[in-house]
């Protein structure tokens, strides 16, 4: 078995970490590109005929080069700040990134304003010609979105004020969480390390860790009430001035998804939740409990707790990918060999996991904390799915690489499912099969119940926030109510501070960082079923689907590659029936 290092290599991108001279030079180049792009956009005169496009060709080239540099720099800063929350120089670079992104946002806003000055006929003819034809979807999308926004000066002002009035609140949250920790058995743990302990088979230990985490979040909850209220307040004020009433407008547009689709998805899920209620009750019985508490939901059944060290986990993932997609397996092996993954279990790291891409160097990096549990193996496969998605996008123009979160989660969940499904099928005995099947069904609990509680909470929180600041007590109550509804009253103890502990509520990229996960899970089931039907013939079709994720709506993507309608219940029922089959098998094996 190969011996892979569980720490990533960032020096192949910029050597020297947060004090890298290479990085400083790169930042200067990026600043110059941004400045030059700004001048070109400012001098740009909207064409009066489809032939007058020379200026715009130059601008699009410079726009893509600038975007590539900003993404490269931004990804590197994310890696630095995640690997060591005490790295103050990385904190300075985070601020620099926000500043440059604001400048870039202002340049794009000015360009977008000039797009809407171009006559409709001229615009349509122009987009049918190279080099614009290949970018037509993205360019049309930008032009349509700007019609919903304020004028140039006001949008530029919002971008500038967002650096310290909006993004800074998200950075404040990250800083505070990075310094948090609890002590378990005399060992000082970060909140990320402590959360991994909730997967233990010892219920007393789970409760102890859960209670200590609750205490830690309660101690900081007043501060996180401030961050959440100010983040949402900034968004709502921006929406108000733009004349937007619906808080879902931005996340749905960002995810290139219709309201009919999200409604059909949640309504169908709600109809099938009874199956998962039975699963949770059966799990409680197996654990000798009347009802599960929140800290029991992810607990393993019985005393046996399978562990895979990092190398075993890596080899297992590669082997399973190989059976499904040789190209995915080959990419994954390379990612391990080249140390693109930071998985070491150590203090000082940010909690959670992510995958970030470096479009200029055509590399990716994965961040997580690996302690050997089945869920860790699944998370690693999940993030490798993200990485592969970016890998197949590298040959496209960067403007066509901007796929939204919901379809990003499709590739990651697809990869995770390959590993989970294979693990169940390859189980050596019934006891192992039950444990692995339970871990697989657990994903349904996460996507259909946990994620749904986040969606319900955030929807109601924004409505409440429109009336004024929401108190800590009210946030706790709203969180518990959302969990009770989403889990169909299946639990006897909930997690009132979940709104504080879940990073996704405090991310400034886009609100409602929740429903795309559920969409991705169910959509990937459809992709997975297609792959099972077609076998090795599907690999190239899968790559083609991924490459289209940045240049069409999800409804068009599903129709083109799967021939399904996402705005009706049929597809969602089909996908859910695949999930329910796992639940029924689990109930049968444990009866």
UniProtKB/TrEMBL annotation:
Boundaries of every Oligopeptidase F N-terminal domain copy: 115-180
Keywords assigned by UniProt, alphabetized: Hydrolase, Metal-binding, Metalloprotease, Protease, Zinc
Domain Peptidase M3A/M3B catalytic, residue spans: 201-546
Bilayer-spanning residue ranges: none
Cofactor binding remark: Binds 1 zinc ion.
Record keyword Ribonucleoprotein present: no
Entries under Pfam families matching the protein: Peptidase_M3 (PF01432), Peptidase_M3_N (PF08439)
Gene3D superfamilies on file: 1.10.1370.30
Cofactor(s) named in the record: Zn(2+)
Annotated family: Belongs to the peptidase M3 family.
Protein name, as recorded: M3 family oligoendopeptidase
Species of origin: Halobacillus amylolyticus
């Amino acid at each position: 078995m190969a011996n892979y290092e569980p720490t990533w290599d960032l020096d192949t991108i910029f050597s020297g970490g947060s004090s890298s001279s290479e990085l400083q030079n790169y930042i200067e180049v990026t600043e110059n590109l941004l400045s030059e792009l700004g001048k070109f956009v400012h001098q740009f005169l909207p064409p009066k005929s489809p032939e007058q496009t020379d200026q715009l060709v130059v601008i699009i080239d410079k726009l893509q080069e600038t975007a590539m540099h900003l993404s490269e720099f931004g990804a590197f800063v994310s890696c630095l700040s995640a690997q060591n929350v005490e790295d103050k120089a990385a904190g300075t670079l985070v601020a620099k990134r926000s500043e440059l992104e604001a400048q870039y946002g202002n340049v794009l806003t000015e360009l977008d304003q000039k797009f809407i000055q171009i006559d409709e006929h001229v615009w349509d003819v122009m987009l049918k010609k190279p080099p614009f034809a290949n970018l037509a979807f993205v360019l049309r999308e930008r032009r349509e979105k700007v019609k919903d926004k304020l004028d140039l000066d006001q949008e530029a002002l919002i971008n500038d004020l967002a650096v310290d009035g909006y993004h800074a609140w998200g950075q404040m949250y990250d800083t505070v969480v990075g310094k948090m920790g609890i002590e378990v058995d005399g060992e000082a743990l970060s909140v990320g390390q402590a959360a991994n302990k909730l997967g233990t088979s010892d219920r007393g230990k789970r409760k102890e860790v859960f209670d200590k985490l609750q205490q830690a979040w309660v101690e900081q909850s007043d501060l996180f009430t401030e961050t959440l209220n100010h983040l949402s307040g900034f968004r709502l004020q921006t929406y108000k001035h733009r004349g937007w009433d619906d808080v879902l407008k931005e996340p749905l547009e960002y995810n290139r998804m219709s309201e009919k689709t999200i409604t059909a998805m949640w309504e169908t899920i709600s109809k099938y939740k009874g199956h998962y209620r039975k699963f949770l009750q059966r799990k409680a019985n197996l654990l000798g409990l009347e009802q599960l508490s929140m800290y029991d939901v992810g607990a393993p059944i019985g005393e046996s707790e399978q562990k895979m060290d990092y190398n075993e986990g890596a080899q297992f993932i590669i082997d399973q990918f190989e059976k499904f997609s040789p190209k995915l397996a080959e990419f994954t092996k390379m990612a391990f060999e080249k140390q693109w993954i930071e998985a070491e279990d150590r203090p000082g790291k940010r909690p959670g996991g992510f995958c970030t891409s470096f479009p200029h160097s055509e590399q990716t990096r994965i961040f997580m904390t690996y302690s050997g549990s089945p869920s860790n193996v699944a998370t690693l496969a999940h993030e490798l799915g993200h990485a592969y998605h970016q890998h197949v996008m590298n040959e496209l123009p960067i403007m066509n690489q901007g796929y939204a979160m919901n379809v990003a989660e499709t590739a990651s969940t697809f990869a995770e499912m390959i590993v989970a499904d294979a693990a169940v099928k390859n189980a050596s005995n019934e006891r192992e099969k039950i444990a692995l099947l339970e871990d697989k069904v657990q994903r349904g609990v996460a996507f259909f119940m946990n994620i749904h509680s986040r969606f319900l909470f955030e929807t109601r929180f924004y409505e409440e926030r429109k009336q004024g600041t929401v108190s800590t007590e009210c946030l706790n109550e709203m969180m518990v109510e959302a969990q009770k509804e989403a889990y169909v009253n299946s639990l006897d103890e909930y997690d009132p501070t979940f709104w504080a502990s879940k990073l996704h509520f405090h991310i400034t990229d886009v609100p409602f960082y929740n429903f795309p996960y559920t969409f991705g899970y169910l959509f990937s089931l459809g992709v997975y079923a297609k792959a099972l039907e077609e076998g090795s013939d599907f690999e190239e079709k899968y790559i083609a689907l991924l490459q289209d994720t940045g240049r069409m709506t999800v409804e068009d993507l599903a129709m083109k590659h799967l021939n399904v309608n996402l705005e009706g219940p049929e597809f969602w029922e089909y996908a859910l029936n695949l999930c329910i089959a796992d639940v029924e098998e689990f109930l049968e094996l444990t009866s």
